[in-house]
Design a protein that fits this description.
115 residues; alpha+beta; Molybdenum Cofactor Biosythetic Enzyme, Chain A; 4-stranded mixed β-sheet; 3 helices
Length: 115
């Protein structure tokens, strides 16, 4: 179990440790986040998203209606940071078998300033 800040797309399938109040409503402690929840996080102003799992990443991209991505710097071999064209949204989309143990920390850092 990991506690701490994570990006919104990394959050799909995550379980909230604390309640989160958005204009769209309250996400209660213990909630498992869906792709619709992730979309609500983006609408609420989250701009950095990290998704783990190929199918999860695909669902996130579909749920956010992403049409085109700009490839940015590499986070880990085979996993670049990307920016959604025309939106202030940076993503890291990795399948389950990519990324080192410190991938999420590197992704958060990379998306924070260089993606």
């Amino acid at each position: 179990m990991k506690f701490g800040r994570i990006g919104a797309a990394e959050a799909e399938g995550a379980i909230l440790a604390h309640s989160l109040r958005l204009d769209a409503g309250v996400f209660k402690k213990g909630r498992v986040l869906s792709s619709d929840d992730v979309a609500a996080l983006v609408e609420a102003g989250f701009t950095r998203l990290v998704s783990a799992g190929g199918e999860t990443s695909g669902a996130v991209v579909t749920g956010l209606d992403v049409q085109s991505l700009e490839i940015g710097p590499e986070i880990d071999p085979g996993v670049p940071a990307v920016r959604v064209e025309g939106r202030e949204l940076a993503l890291a989309l990795k399948s389950g078998n990519f990324g080192a143990d410190d991938f999420f920390a590197k992704a958060a850092s990379r998306l924070g300033g260089e993606a």
